[in-house]
Write a structure and sequence with these properties.
Immunoglobulin-like; about 700 residues; alpha+beta; five-stranded antiparallel β-sheet; about 15% strand; elongated; 3 domains
Length: about 700
C-alpha cells in the first residue's frame, strides 16, 4: 500500500506535465503550415537571413537581428524547404518547451521550503498552474506560432535559471555549467537579454544582505560555484561580446537607440525625465494586465495578456513575493526577474509586447503563487478536509485551464482568422506560390519595385527572373535600363503592381510601380494585365533600346513658384486599372490619366501645399478638375512642410468622366496653400495656372 502511494505521488506530476505539454503541442502546431496565413514583415526578414546562412554567409548578427533564431530557422529550412512551416516551427517548438521548463522551474522554486523540507503539494500547484496557464495563453500561443526571434528568450532564460537553481542547491557542477552555457547564449537571442546580467548580479547580491548573515567560509564556497557559472557564460558569450567591442556601433545601433524614450528629451531636467518615465511605466503596467500591447500580434491586439482573474492573482503573487522577500529566495528571484525584464518595455518609446517577452515565465509563476496563497488562506478556514479541499481547488483550476484552452482554440482557428488578410502579408506568399507553379517564362522578367516584401523573396523558387528594385524616382529610368541591359535578352517585361490598404487612409498605391508603368508606356508596348488576387501584373513587349530612357521628359523646364516649391519634372501616362473603391479592385478598363511629378521644396518650408489638376478644351473652357494634397508617398503624414529628403516624386491617377468627349485637352496645374487655399504663382509668369502640356483622351471603353 505504501509503495502504491509513493508511485502515485511520483506519477501525478508526470501526468500533469504530459497533459499540459499535449495541449501546448496542439495549440502551437495545429495547422501551423497554413495559419496564420501569410508572413509578417519580420518573419520575411528572418527567412531571408536564414537563406543567407544556408548559402554560407555566417555572422553573429544579421542587420539589427541577433543570430541564434536565424540559425535555428536556417536549420529548419534546410530540412523542410522554403515554407512558412520552416519559418515558424522553431519558435513553436520553443514555446512548447517553455511550458515544460516553467513546470520544472515552478517545482524547483517552491517544492522545498527554506529549511530544505519538501513541499510537494506547493511545488506541484505552482508549477502546474503556471505551465497550464502558459500552455493555453492566447497571447503566448500567437507568439509561439509566429517566427519572432524574441520567442526563444523565455525558454533559454527559464532553462538557465532552472539548471542554476537545481545545480546550486544540489551541488551539481555539470548543471551549473550547463546553466552558464544557457546564460552565454542569451546575448545571441534578443536585445532585452542585455538586462539579464543585472538579474544575476542583484539576485546573487541579495544573499549577502545583511553582510553578517553569511559566514566567510560559506561565501568563499559559493564564489567557486559562481565563478564556474560566470566563466562558462563568458566563454560562450565571448564571440558576440568581442564582436560588440570591435563594433560598438552595432551594439548601439540606430534601432536600439530609437527604443529609448529619453532620446527625445536630452538635456531635460531630472524631474522631467522622472515624470516621463513614471507615466510611461504606469501606462505599460495598466495595459499589461489586460491587453496585449500593440505592434506585434495583429490581428489579435485585442487579446489579453492576462485576463481579469489572472491579473488579480498576478498582483496578489507580487504582493506575496514582496512580503516574503527576506524569507524566500524564490520570491526575490521572481520579483527581480519581472522588474528587470520589464525594463525594455518601460524604456521603449513604442509599446510592444515583445519588449517584455523575457519576463513571461516569471509572470505566470507569480500568477501561480497568487493562486497558491489563495488556496492556503481558504484551506485555513477548514470548511472541508484538507485533502478534499486540495482536490476541489485543483479541479477548479484544471477546469478553468480547459475553458481557457477552448477559448484560445476558438479565437485562433475560428473568427480571428477571418480578419487576417488585413494584418498578415497574405498576397505576397500567395503570389510567390502561384509563380512557383508556373513553367519558366523565357526571355521574361518581373519587376517588383518595393523594398519590404521579404515574404516573397523567401518563398519564391520559380525559374523566371524576378528583379527587386527600389530606386529613387529621379534615378528610376537609368536603373531600369541598366537592369535590362544586365539581364540581356528580354522580350517581355512584367511590372508587378498592387494597392496596399492602410488604416489611416483609404488606400495607398505602389507609386514606384506607377512611375515604371509610365516609363514602359513610352519605351514598350502594353499587352495585357493579369490579376493575382490583389496584385496586378502589366505586361510589355517590344522594349525599345534605340535611345536613352528618360522618365521626366514631358516638362520643357522646371516650374519655379514664389512659395518655395518647384516642379522639376513631369511624366504622363495612361492607367488601365481603376483606383479602388470600398476596398476592392475593379479590373474593367477605364479612361484614366496617370500624372507623375518630381518636386523640390525650399529648406525649412512652413507651408503645406495641394495641387489642382485641370483639363481645358479647345475653347479654353475648364471641363475637368481633380485636387490632391501633396504628400510624400508611403509617408502619409508628411506634407510638404515636413519633406526633408529631396526631390520627392508623386503620382496621381485622374479618372476621366465617361461623358467627357475624346480628343486633345490642355493640362494645367494650380499649386495652392492647403490651409488658406491661396495659390502660389510661377516666378516670371505671375499667374496661378501653369500649362503643363496637351494630353489625348481616348474614347470611352478604349
Amino acid at each position: 500500500m505504501l509503495r502504491f502511494k509513493t508511485d502515485r505521488a511520483e506519477l501525478t506530476p508526470f501526468l500533469v506535465l504530459l497533459a499540459f505539454t499535449a495541449v501546448a503541442l496542439f495549440l502551437r502546431l495545429y495547422r501551423l503550415h497554413e495559419l496564420e496565413p501569410g508572413l509578417k514583415f519580420d518573419e520575411g526578414w528572418n527567412g531571408i537571413y536564414a537563406l543567407q546562412v544556408l548559402q554560407g554567409e555566417h555572422a553573429l548578427t544579421f542587420g539589427d537581428k541577433d543570430g541564434l533564431g536565424i540559425y535555428l530557422i536556417a536549420l529548419a529550412t534546410n530540412f523542410l524547404g522554403r515554407t512558412p512551416l520552416a519559418l515558424r516551427l522553431p519558435t513553436a517548438l520553443a514555446g512548447i518547451c517553455t511550458v515544460c521548463v516553467v513546470f520544472w522551474l515552478g517545482r524547483l522554486l517552491f517544492g522545498w521550503d527554506e529549511r530544505g523540507r519538501e513541499t510537494r503539494q506547493r511545488g506541484l500547484m505552482v508549477g502546474g498552474a503556471a505551465s497550464g496557464l502558459l500552455a493555453v495563453s492566447l497571447g503566448q500561443t500567437i507568439l509561439g506560432r509566429t517566427a519572432y526571434r524574441g520567442s526563444f528568450l523565455p525558454l533559454f532564460l527559464a532553462l538557465c535559471l532552472a539548471l542554476l537553481w537545481w545545480g546550486w542547491t544540489r551541488r551539481r557542477w555539470w548543471a551549473v555549467m550547463l546553466a552558464g552555457a544557457c546564460a552565454g547564449l542569451l546575448p545571441y537571442i534578443y536585445y532585452p537579454a542585455r538586462f539579464v546580467p543585472f538579474l544575476f548580479l542583484f539576485f546573487g547580491t541579495s544573499f549577502l544582505l545583511p553582510l553578517r548573515s553569511v559566514s566567510l567560509k560559506r561565501m568563499q564556497a559559493d564564489l567557486l560555484w559562481a565563478a564556474a557559472f560566470t566563466g562558462v557564460a563568458a566563454l560562450v558569450a565571448a564571440p558576440i561580446l568581442l564582436h560588440y567591442i570591435r563594433h560598438p556601433d552595432l551594439f548601439f545601433n540606430e534601432r536600439i537607440q530609437m527604443l529609448f524614450i529619453f532620446r527625445e528629451y536630452q538635456g531635460a531636467p531630472v524631474l522631467t525625465l522622472a515624470k516621463i518615465l513614471t507615466v510611461h511605466v504606469w501606462e505599460i503596467l495598466a495595459k499589461f494586465s489586460f491587453r496585449l500591447l500593440a505592434g506585434c500580434c495583429s490581428p489579435f491586439e485585442h487579446a489579453v495578456t492576462l485576463n481579469g482573474w489572472e491579473a488579480l492573482f498576478f498582483w496578489l503573487g507580487v504582493a506575496t513575493a514582496v512580503w516574503r522577500w527576506n524569507r524566500r529566495p524564490a520570491c526575490r528571484l521572481l520579483l527581480l526577474w519581472v522588474g528587470l525584464l520589464f525594463m525594455p518595455a518601460f524604456l521603449a518609446d513604442t509599446k510592444n509586447t515583445m519588449r517584455m517577452v523575457g519576463a513571461v515565465p516569471a509572470i505566470y509563476l507569480l500568477v501561480a503563487v497568487g493562486l497558491w496563497e489563495t488556496f492556503q488562506w481558504s484551506a485555513s478556514r477548514k470548511l472541508v478536509g484538507a485533502k478534499t479541499w486540495a482536490s476541489i481547488f485543483g479541479t477548479a483550476i484544471s477546469v478553468v485551464i480547459v475553458i481557457q484552452g477552448a477559448s484560445t482554440y476558438r479565437t485562433l482557428f475560428g473568427k480571428g482568422m477571418t480578419d487576417s488578410f488585413y494584418h498578415y502579408d497574405m498576397i505576397w506568399p500567395t503570389f510567390a506560390q502561384r509563380l512557383n507553379a508556373r513553367p519558366e517564362e523565357k526571355d521574361t522578367v518581373y519587376f517588383i519595385t518595393h523594398q519590404r516584401y521579404d515574404a516573397f523573396d523567401y518563398l519564391y523558387q520559380g525559374a523566371t527572373s524576378v528583379v527587386r528594385t527600389y530606386p529613387n524616382v529621379s534615378d528610376l529610368d537609368h536603373r531600369i535600363e541598366a537592369s535590362l541591359a544586365e539581364i540581356g535578352d528580354v522580350s517581355t517585361v512584367k511590372v508587378v503592381n498592387w494597392v496596399e490598404w492602410s488604416p489611416t487612409i483609404e488606400w495607398r498605391s505602389n507609386y514606384i510601380a506607377d512611375f515604371l508603368t509610365i516609363l514602359l508606356d513610352k519605351y514598350g508596348s502594353y499587352v495585357a494585365t493579369e490579376d493575382f488576387d490583389g496584385i496586378h501584373v502589366d505586361s510589355y513587349v517590344d522594349i525599345s533600346r534605340n535611345r536613352p530612357w528618360v522618365l521626366f521628359e514631358d516638362l520643357p523646364s522646371p516650374v519655379v513658384y514664389d512659395g518655395g516649391i518647384t516642379l522639376e519634372g513631369l511624366a504622363l501616362g495612361s492607367s488601365r486599372i481603376k483606383l479602388p473603391r470600398r476596398q476592392r479592385f475593379d479590373a474593367e478598363q477605364s479612361r484614366s490619366l496617370k500624372v507623375g511629378m518630381l518636386w523640390r521644396t525650399a529648406p525649412e518650408l512652413a507651408v503645406d501645399y495641394s495641387i489642382s489638376l485641370r483639363l481645358y478644351n479647345g475653347d479654353d473652357v475648364k471641363v475637368f478638375q481633380s485636387d490632391h494634397v501633396l504628400r510624400r508617398p508611403y509617408k502619409y503624414p508628411l506634407t510638404t512642410s515636413l519633406w526633408t529628403s529631396q526631390p520627392v516624386g508623386t503620382v496621381f491617377d485622374l479618372e476621366i468622366p465617361n461623358e467627357l468627349a475624346a480628343g486633345a485637352y490642355e493640362l494645367r496645374i494650380v499649386v495652392y496653400d492647403l490651409k488658406t487655399s491661396t495659390p502660389t504663382v510661377e516666378v516670371g509668369v505671375w499667374q496661378p495656372e501653369t500649362a503643363l502640356g496637351r494630353v489625348q483622351i481616348q474614347p470611352s471603353g478604349h
